[in-house]
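Quick one:
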Amino acid sequence: MNVIRPDKIEGTETELDPDLAAVSEVEAGIRDFVRNDIAYLRRPNATAAAATAEPAIDADAAVNSVTSLIQRVAGTSLSEIENLIGELESLRELLHAEGQRVQREIASYAQLSQAAMKSTRAIAENVTQWKRAADGLRNS
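Output:
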């Protein structure tokens, strides 16, 4: 995961998203933990017994610690992702319902427009007939 660390950006420490800052801190903690945990492998051990028994116990503890840390970080991220998916599904349903409502409204307006056009034509035809009848009465 590539995250810009606050100490690498000048003057933007307060501008970073708190979630990114938390992730950066967790990643830094994991790096430090792994470095400290692996440091014993680089040191020469005094006795063979110390080299075989103690590192195995420390390695298991380190693996358990790293595993629990990763599970905590991943658990938070997964719950946030699941919440986001739920919200997006709700929005999709809302948009679908609104789309259907808009389609019904457009169909209703189209019917209303057609009825208005028919009424306007009927009125125009009647007015034309009345005008012809009135012109015929004037000429006679």
